[in-house]
Amino acid sequence: MTLIVPEKNDSFLVRYASVAHFDVLMEAGVRIALFQGGLLHTKSMVVDGMLSLFGSVNLDMRSFWLNFEISLFVYDAAFAAQIMALQQSYLKHAPFLDADAWASRPIGRRFLENTLRLAGPLL
Fold first, then answer.
1. Cα separation of 90 and 68, whole Å?
2. Residue 59: helix, strand or coil by DSSP?
3. Which of 3, 45, 8, 40 is nearest to 24 (CA)?
4. How far apart are the C-alpha atoms of 76 and 78, rounded to whole Å?
């Protein structure tokens, strides 16, 4: 599985709270790519080349009840191919995070990430 996230974020708090999960994700085998082409807000997923999810919603109550964000589920191979092409275009501007380099980041940064992770549900 590959996760594409923006390299730069428009919120200091969100930036550090979100990357606090990278260790667990990489341990589970997720490859993380850092998109360098600007702010990336789209959430997209393709399952088995047929089922696609595309939209802006986060899987939290804030997105559902406060921001009224939505996502589209489509069961169609042609649509899934278009989403996969879009994802591949993102990867052209997204180098993969090196797990060893990530593990060796400074302890102060880890502390900041894990502290702000506590505020994650509010962000």
1. 26
2. coil
3. 3
4. 6
